Amino acid sequence: MLKRLVQGAVYLGLLASSVLGFGYTTSGNSIVVTTDGGLTFTVDKTSGDITSMVFNGIETQDSSKRSQIASGIGATCTPTQTGNSNNYVKITCVAGSLTQYYVAKYKDPAIHMATYITAEPSVGELRFISRLKKSAVSSGYAVSEIAGGTAIEGSDVFKVGSATRSKFYSSKQFIDDQVHGASGNGVGVYMVIPGNGYEASSGGPFFRDINNQGGEIDLYSVIVIQNSGHTQTESNRMGLHGPYALWFTSGSAPSTFGESLIDLNTSFWEGLSVTGLVPQSQRGRVTGKASGIASSFSNYQTIGFSNSAAQYWVRTDSSGAFTSPYMKPGTYTMTLYKVELAVASQSVTVSAGGTATSNIASTESNPSSIWQIGDFDGTPRGFLNADKIETMHPSDSRMSSWGPATFTVGNSVSSFPMALFKAVGAVKINFSLTSSQIGARTLQIATTLAFAGGRPSVVVNNWNGPAPAAPSQPDSRGVTRGTWRGNNIMYTVSIPSGTLVAGSNSITINVISGSSGDMYLSPNFVFDALRLY
Ligand SMILES: *[C@@H]1O[C@H](CO)[C@@H](O)[C@H](O)[C@H]1NC(C)=O
Ligand SMILES: *[C@@H]1O[C@H](CO)[C@@H](O)[C@H](O)[C@H]1NC(C)=O
Question: Which of 150, 264, 320, 510 has the fewest CB within 10 Å, making it most exposed?
Fold first, then answer.
């Protein structure tokens, strides 16, 4: 009897240290996974869709639409219980050029995921959409809650009461987008993108894309965008996207994973035979120091790395020092950003297990100016409506009037419009010069994005400036769906001697384009800064 009890205890102990309650069962087309962390989820093995996600007894999955990669991939799925003490369930869903991995880790209230592609999905974006039951997961981003609204632009910008709303307004720049989600009574659902989770995405550190939409009916989406055509400045990257995770809590956002949020430890993936995964031991780093950026920007310096296979970034410390994430081996273009403006670029090669040293110095020219409006930092921050544009449509009644505007040099730049729309009209800049400031001068107009070929053409007093060629910018709406992040383009105008006069002068900036459009969809561009020197 005693022996039997002892044996029983040993047996139970063994079970507890492996996977008591943890594992999967199959029933018809359903693979039902119990994480033993409060979450049970179901994957349809004939499609790869998630059909149920029950956390602490609360069903969070919408019943009419499924959670899925792309818009559903029609995959065939195979489950295995694997890894250390069988502490992992891996479901591999294969559909042609796309493989979606769902992984449960013993005790994690999470669906760990990674997505391997050799071609862009036909839906044109690679994204995971969690379609959550709105009665259970009721609050996401207020700026993206469109229930009861009327579409005012495309099928994605709405007016709800007097406020404009859009799924695009939930976006965060990749460099700051480690967790986003939605919650309800007793439950929170969060997409977690750890350190290198965006390495196979596109657009760089300051790219923003949809995180959330509160829908008309029973629909709540928490989305990780991996590749999309939303004001995208780069080509899509193939290979393994992620790992990322859908994490369940009793409400608030997960703030730690035993370590820090950003460092959700994904190294267990290395033991799971995942196509395209490059283990840390096969990666390398870059360390160095950035220099040459004015001290007022010392806390806003970022180093980006990119090649056709991967992208990475790291913020420097205030002295300019940085150490990159663990990167795939290869040769990268390394870029120094002053806020969002590229001010230096060079090549660096990363080898497996190595740490390369690569210092980088700003090559930005800083001519001494007669006047300057705004900061040359690759953003319109500080200008009129720039504080609102990321979460409101330009037509929103909470916006200040766009113009036509007259700006007198010396006034607060918060009255200078962040964007110029052809249908709104020109901005006129008034300024005085002394007799020693006249003669041949240079005007620079820096822009961050344009739509429908919009670019600046100037009239200086009575002199008509040149008509620049159409800019190379993403072929996509931009500022009307809450972003200024395109290609930073500088226009330089040589003002001939005899144009500027001692006393009052004016420069009128118009939008020119061969295209047309209504109001805020008329050709437009976003200002970064201007200077006369
Ligand atoms: C991450 O997890 C692995 C086991 O999967 C462990 O060996 C490693 O120490 C962990 N790293 C950190 C930083 O905790
Ligand atoms: C600004 O423009 C107005 C009208 O064009 C003009 O009367 C005024 O003198 C200008 N002010 C300056 C400071 O140049």
Answer: 150
- Identify the domain containing residue 260 by its residue range: 28-271
- Alpha-carbon dihedral sign for residues 21, 86, 31, 266: positive
The answer to whether the CB of 326 is under 6 A from ligand 1 is no
Q: Are 181 and 191 in contact (CB under 8 A)?
A: yes
Statement to judge: residues 349 and 447 lie in one domain: no
* d(C-alpha 157, C-alpha 166), whole Å: 5
- The order of strands in the sheet holding 341-350 is 311-315, 301-306, 330-338, 341-350
Q: How far is the CA of 526 from the centre of ligand 2 (A)?
A: 25
CA distance 26 to 80: 11
- Give the closest ligand to the alpha carbon of residue 194: 1
Burial 331-370, CB ≥16 within 10 A → b, else e: ebebbbbbbbbbbbeeebebeeeeebebebebeeeeeeeb
Whether residue 19 lies inside any domain: the answer is no
Q: pLDDT of 250-270, one tens digit each?
A: 999 887 665 445 578 899 999
Looking at ligand 2, which atom is closest to the CA of residue 431? 14
Pairing of β 301-306 and β 285-291: unpaired
Give the pLDDT confidence score for residue 12 in this predicted structure. Answer: 41
Q: Which helix (H) or strand (E) holds 212?
A: strand 212-214
Residue 337 to residue 214: CA distance in whole angstroms: 34
Q: Do 285 and 241 sit in the same domain of this protein?
A: no
- Tell me what pLDDT residue 4 has: 43
Nearest ligand to residue 83 Cα? 1
> How is 444-483 classified by DSSP, letter by letter?
EEEEEEEETT-EEEEEETTEE---PPPP---SS--GGGT-
Place of tokens 């729309």: 421
Domain shared by 451 and 321, yes or no? no
**Which atom of ligand 1 has the smallest separation from the CA of 268?**
5
SS (H, E, C) 136-152: CCCECCHHHECCCCEEE
- Give the Å distance between the CA of 305 and the centre of ligand 1: 26
Quote the pTM value. Answer: 0.92
448 lies in some domain: yes
Q: What is the DSSP string of 16-65?
A: HHTTTT-EEEEETTEEEEE-SSSEEEEEETTT--EEEEEETTEE-B-SSS
Count other C-beta atoms under 10 Å from residue 277's C-beta: 18
- Those residues of the chain that have pLDDT short of 70 are 1-20, 216-220, 256-262
| pLDDT recorded at residue 14 | 41
Closest residue to atom 1 of ligand 2, CA basis: 430
Ligand 1 atom index nearest CA of 259:
14
